[in-house]
Amino acid sequence: MPAELCINIDVTDGLTNGIPCIIKKLDFRVEGSNRCSIVSVSFHNSDIGNKIRKQFSHLYKYSIPLIWTPILEITRKFKYNYYYSFQVTRRQFPITLGAAKTIHKAQGCTLSSAVIQLGTTKIEHMHYVALSRVQNLSSLYLLDFSENVKISNAVLEEISRLRLLNIFSKCDHETFNRCSEKGISCVHHNTTKSQL
């Protein structure tokens, strides 16, 4: 089940707020209890969670692969003052389900694939933020894509300024083919056929 961490558990170990993971096992260690004790997750990068896996290596049973990372519940205490003073204790696993994300939440993420629905958003540059999350365009799937993209005046002015400076040389198809044959990566971004 897709999920993500909702707090920074250990930044140096890669266990940061928003990092995606897959829930692999809910471990009920206490006999007779209906409360889960450990949630085992896997990350896309096996380096994430190395420290915590070593720290809690004694928790692994024969049925739990060593690449799964144990996530333990956390306890938070806070005071609540109304007519009386209360101390509230909250115990929970620092995980939220993450099958879907808002574009804002996905900002900064690099995804192997994504299904993106933009709808009729009018927020500037939202299309760029959404479409630039994947590593490969062949793994990008669009739902209800609208080509009505809003661009701020500041960006339009900067594009006009750069065109006037003529600091970029155009790449014709012959140059493009030569670069491709030499193994040079050619990146196309925010272009239309008429600009090539």
Quick rundown:
This protein is 19% helix and 24% strand. It is built from 5 helices and 9 strands.
Describe it.
By secondary structure, the protein is of the alpha+beta class. The protein has 2 domains: 2-97, no CATH class; 100-150, no CATH class. The chain contains 5 helices and 9 strands; from the N terminus they run E-E-E-H-E-E-E-E-H-E-H-E-H-H. It has helices at residues 50-55, 103-106, 126-131, 153-165, 173-181, and strands at residues 2-5, 20-27, 38-42, 69-72, 74-81, 85-92, 95-97, 114-117, 140-143. A 5-stranded antiparallel sheet has the order 4-3-2-1-7. Strands 5-6 form a two-stranded antiparallel sheet. A two-stranded parallel sheet has the order 8-9. The protein starts with a strand and ends in a 15-residue tail after the last helix. The model is unreliable at 188-196 (pLDDT under 50).
Q: Output mean pLDDT.
A: 79
Q: Low-confidence spans: pLDDT under 50, at least 5 residues?
A: 188-196
Q: How far is the N terminus from the C terminus?
A: 43 Å
Helix content: 10-25%
Main sheet characteristics: 5 strands, antiparallel
For the largest sheet, list the strands in their spatial order: 4-3-2-1-7
- The tally of beta strands, per DSSP, is 9
SS-based class: alpha+beta
Shape by Cα distribution: extended
Order of helices and strands: EEEHEEEEHEHEHH
- CA gyration radius, whole angstroms: 24 Å
| Estimated share of beta-strand residues | 15-25%
The tally of domains stands at 2
Query: What's the helix count?
Result: 5
